[in-house]
Write a structure and sequence with these properties.
The chain has 419 residues and is of the alpha+beta class. The protein folds into 3 domains: 93 residues, RNA polymerase II/Efflux pump adaptor protein, barrel-sandwich hybrid domain (OB fold (Dihydrolipoamide Acetyltransferase, E2P)); 64 residues, Dihydrolipoamide Transferase (Irregular); 221 residues, Chloramphenicol acetyltransferase-like domain (Chloramphenicol Acetyltransferase, 2-Layer Sandwich). It contains 10 helices and 19 strands. The strands form 5 sheets. Strands 9, 12, 15, 16, 17, 18 and 19 form a 7-stranded mixed sheet that branches. A 4-stranded antiparallel sheet has the order 1-8-6-3. The chain has a 4-stranded antiparallel sheet with strand order 5-4-2-7, with no helix packed on it. Strand 4 and strand 5 form a beta hairpin. Helix 7 packs across helix 9. It is globular.
Length: 419
């Protein structure tokens, strides 16, 4: 009996998906809940598991094809007997394996991988596909030779270093060799690759934000001496009690919540001719991932403690790297915070994340001379940027909002007293 494997129901905001890669081929045995294929949408990568035990009978949508919710992806011939038959056929077609060729780590009833076929995790499989890397050139350091993300990064670093050495060697070639007949005058390689759906969606939303909103940016700077001292004083006990590091991000999120409460229009959005005021605080945290920038949403942040915020941020970062963020975690949001400082940015003008009306940009923290009480002192300073939709938010409100964040961070006691 054949069981259909269909595209799972997609959210209303997602029209279709692209078949990214199949992990099984017709004739392969599969187990219930084993991942068959990855589907890429403009937000996340979905894994489609097998609904039954059996053998993959037919693939109905090949890599690169566009599918919609409910479309047929494959047929699975159900039953353990069918799986056993497929295994027997595989054994019969395979040449006999000598005792020396058998893997000492092979487990009973475990189908060995094809010869010279590297073992990849789902995240690594997507990574090598996007980077156009042949995984056979990468040496795996994981269990049973499994290739890890760190192995891919090490391979890329080694490849870049080798390319740099070749370029340096070419730069010192004697002039006589450069004019040799038939010599190449210069290397001008090009590579054309299609945009991933996530990158295309990012481009679409950024263009939409610039076309549909009157975006302005206001700037200020904040002295993080008080926050730094507070972190230095309690970070050890905080990490011991809560098993998470106390970072700067939780202070900024808490400060933003206080400012949003004082200026609710910054937490609002435009819907046609209406202004929608949100009585809750769902904060988007911009996070870099191998596939591009994603903005997971932290719900009801005003009800979370510092420790809960830090744990949520760490979890978002891990999921972004693994590509395991869900639709629910990427949907909604009333305000966004982007920390370009982790990449060394000194100053930038962040772009709105529609339909939100404002976004806070954090930047690099540097020791700079400032004047306090008529004296020049060195303090850890950061530039802040607030981009906002001028159709909804006036300049006065934007400036006061940013000043509120500055005041709270320079005197963290305000968070306790809520003043």
């Amino acid at each position: 009996m054949s069981t259909k494997v269909n595209v799972p129901a997609l959210p209303e905001s997602v029209a279709d998906a692209t078949v990214l890669s199949w992990h099984k081929q017709p004739g392969d045995s599969v187990q219930r809940d084993e991942n068959l294929v990855d589907l890429e949408t403009d937000k996340v990568v979905l894994e489609v598991p097998s609904p039954v035990d059996g053998v993959l009978e037919q693939i109905a949508a090949n890599d690169g094809e566009t599918v919609q919710g409910g479309d047929l992806l494959a047929l699975v011939q159900e039953g353990k007997a069918a799986a056993g038959q497929a295994k027997r056929e595989t054994v019969e077609k395979s040449p006999p394996v000598t005792k020396q060729e058998q893997s000492p780590t092979a487990k009973p009833n475990e189908t060995p991988p094809a010869e010279n076929e590297p073992i990849l995790t789902p995240a690594v499989r997507r990574m090598v596909k996007e980077m156009d890397i042949d995984p056979k050139h990468i040496k795996g350091s994981g269990k049973d030779g499994r290739i890890l993300k760190s192995d891919v990064i090490a391979y890329l670093d080694a490849r870049d270093a080798e390319a740099a050495e070749q370029k340096e060697a070419a730069a010192v070639v004697p002039p006589a060799l450069e004019t040799t007949p038939g010599a190449v005058a210069g290397n001008r390689p090009e590579q054309r690759v299609p945009m991933t759906r996530l990158r295309a969606r990012i481009a679409e939303r950024l263009l939409q934000a610039q076309q549909n909103a009157a975006i302005l940016t206001t700037f200020n700077e904040v002295n993080l001496e008080a926050v730094s001292n507070l972190r230095q004083r309690y970070k050890g006990k905080f990490e011991k009690d809560h098993e998470v590091r106390l970072g700067f991000m939780s202070f900024f999120i808490k400060a933003a919540i206080e400012a949003l409460k004082q200026f609710p229009v910054v937490n609002a959005s435009v819907d046609g001719q209406d202004i929608v005021y949100h009585g809750y605080y769902d904060i988007g945290i911009a996070v870099g991932s191998p596939r591009g920038l994603v903005v997971p949403i932290m719900r009801n942040v005003d009800q979370l403690s510092f420790a809960e915020i830090e744990k949520a941020i760490g979890e978002f970062g891990k999921k972004a790297q693994d590509g395991s963020l869900s639709y629910e975690e990427l949907t909604g949001g009333t305000f966004t915070i982007s920390n370009g400082g982790v990449y060394g940015s000194m100053l930038s003008t962040p772009i709105l994340n529609p339909p939100q009306s404002a976004i806070l940009g954090m930047h690099n923290i540097l020791q700079r001379p400032v004047v306090e009480n008529g004296e020049i002192v060195i303090r850890p300073m950061m530039y802040l940027a607030l981009s906002y939709d001028h159709r909804l938010i006036d300049g006065r409100e934007a400036v006061q909002f940013l000043v509120t964040i500055k005041n709270v961070l320079e005197d963290p006691a305000r968070l306790l007293l809520q003043i």
